[in-house]
Amino acid sequence: MSGANSAREALIVETLGEVAALIDRLEAVAPALDASRLALVSASKELGRQIGGIEHRMIALTDGAKVQAIKHIARAPMRWPA
Q1: How far apart are CA 75 and CA 67, in angstroms?
Q2: Cα 9–11–12 angle (5° rounding)?
Q3: What distance in Å separates the CA atoms of residue 26 and residue 44, rounded to the nearest whole number?
Q4: Rounded distance, CA 61 to CA 54, Å?
Q5: Measured between alpha carbons, how far apart are the two ends of the chain, in Å?
Q6: How far, in whole angstroms, is CA 81 from its chain's centroid?
């Protein structure tokens, strides 16, 4: 019986050691994950600002294209079907 208990105790000790190592690894990764999260939040905010600028330029571009199209249509001679 003491052999089975010794094997069981050895297995428990080994398992506890592996769990402790896993916890240490998780604790080591946590700061890197937090830094990555903060970098993603910052990049997201910057991308939002850039998209806002692009949106304003696209509106100005399409408004200019509309004006040019209207001027072109106004200059075109009127042709009635025969």
Answers
A1: 12
A2: 65
A3: 26
A4: 10
A5: 112
A6: 57
Q: Write out pLDDT tens, residues 53-64.
A: 898 899 999 999
Query: Which helix (H) or strand (E) segment is 52 a member of?
Result: helix 2-75
* Distances, alpha carbon 41 to alpha carbons 30, 35, 75, in Å: 17, 10, 51
Both tokens assigned to 12: 């428990």
Q: How many whole angstroms from its chain centre is CA 28?
A: 23
Q: Give the mean pLDDT of the chain.
A: 90
Using alpha carbons only, what angle is made at residue 37 by residues 32 and 43, rounded to the nearest 5 degrees? 125
Span 12-24, pLDDT tens digits? 999 999 999 999 9
What token pair was written down for 46?
């910057």
